[in-house]
Amino acid sequence: MKLADLPEDTFTRCLAGTGILLQTGPFIVRIHSSVEGFAQLLRRFYANFPVVPEPAIADFHVRLTMPGGIRRHWRPQVLLLLDGQVVFLPYPLSHAFPLFEWGLNWSIAMQAHQYLMLHSAAVERSGRVLLLPAWSGSGKSTLCAALVSRGWRLFSDEFGLVRADDGQLIPLPRPMPLKNHSIDVIRDFAPDAELGPSFYGTRKGTVAHLGTSAACVEQSAVSAPPGWLVFPRYQPGASMRLEPIFKPQAFIKLANNSFNYQLLGLRGFQSVSRLVRDCDCYVLSYSNLDEAIVALNYLAES
Description:
The structure is a single chain. This protein has 302 residues and is α+β, with helices and mostly antiparallel strands. The chain has two domains: 3-111, no CATH class; 115-301, no CATH class. It is 32% helix and 30% strand. The chain contains ten helices and 17 strands. The strands form three sheets. Strands 7, 8, 9, 10, 11, 15, 16 and 17 form an eight-stranded mixed beta sheet that branches. A hairpin with a 5-residue loop joins strand 10 (159-163) and strand 11 (169-170). It starts with 7 loop residues before the first helix and ends with a helix.
């Protein structure tokens, strides 16, 4: 059953009570909340995600609640509890949904060490995955959203999850958070994209989430081998340049864009080595999304 198929009164009652169990990629998340406005956004952005029947063991337990006392009425706030523990300072109540998304990302990054976790967007075409490893400010999420709007399948805009035994990439499609100028860029580039409300004044500026297509969610269990490592960098006014790099250099850059490379030790070294060996490796400088997509499509079609 999809979340959208759950009757609204049942959904609201379960969310505020024992919680809703949702499948997102390889993970099961139990979500509790009675916070005003959060339920509507969760139902909207996770409408196509499977509801897991009880009983089930959740990988992550996420609870949103409001602190007690006078602040409940004066500048109301929201708290995020992960496995019963508060790990972030309170956020303004209006930022409950982005707080949930960041909290779930944090939980995955801190606990899912059965995978090599790369800080990377990942999209698939022609049965192979394009990895776009980069830290914030590189234009990674904007480029990922643009590629998905042009027919690539979303694996994740945040995590490259690499299975250790065979090197396959594991899909983890979820709403994509676009920040600041990227929001208007994608609105202009993909007018039909499902963009949610803008959250102003968050700790990352203005944030709006791009919805995940039903097709991407339905293929969440379909892994794929890596094909290309492309390290992107957005540079205003720059000409598009897609240039190969030596594999030792790609290894260093990829290891530095991993959440848990050092923690995994030998297994991390072997996983990164296999990725670099199996992929064509490039750096991409761009300012124009159309030009960047033409170049990346050419890689997929070659």
